[in-house]
């Protein structure tokens, strides 16, 4: 993963990034599929950047109901909001959806001027602010998708956004069926049945995680 292509290091040269990584005590770690990266209830002191694979942001309530609140693909940042509030316990867990490499940055050093007085440190803070703002918008989108009462309504809301992002009726979603059901807050079996009805009604075509809106 080329870090200059990530939102956090956008607009920086490779040499600038290398110097920043030293200032920020950057450390990488690989996780197996299903392995927990950050656990609910614990504080996060570091910002995570996904280098490869995918991270799922999840929540389990006291009754055992599981929800997927979002995902982080290569280049995406996670846990930044919690890391910026010292001691704040996580309301979610972060887990590897597949074999995943993560780069961790010391948030304390991100938010304070380093002893080397890097001229590009200010750019990093601005980028972090933009990342946080985009995450807030993403949460608003999920609220929008889970607003409709029917499963079909939630699916159509989500697929509409995916098609807009893709710039056409064909798109690929980052979730398998269980993850999509968790993200939309619906039962997996009921959702799969509704997908079949939507295909029968001529609304969509799909294969695995590739979809096409019809008509």
Automatic annotation (TrEMBL):
Protein name listed in UniProt: Crp/Fnr family transcriptional regulator
Keywords tagged on the record: DNA-binding, Transcription, Transcription regulation
Cited Pfam families: cNMP_binding, HTH_Crp_2
GO BP terms: regulation of DNA-templated transcription
Alphabetized InterPro entries for the sequence: cNMP-bd_dom, cNMP-bd_dom_sf, HTH_CRP, RmlC-like_jellyroll, WH_DNA-bd_sf
Domain HTH crp-type, chain residue ranges per copy: 149-215
Origin species: Candidatus Eisenbergiella merdigallinarum
GO molecular function, one term: DNA binding
Boundaries of every Cyclic nucleotide-binding domain copy: 8-106
Gene3D superfamilies in UniProt: Jelly Rolls
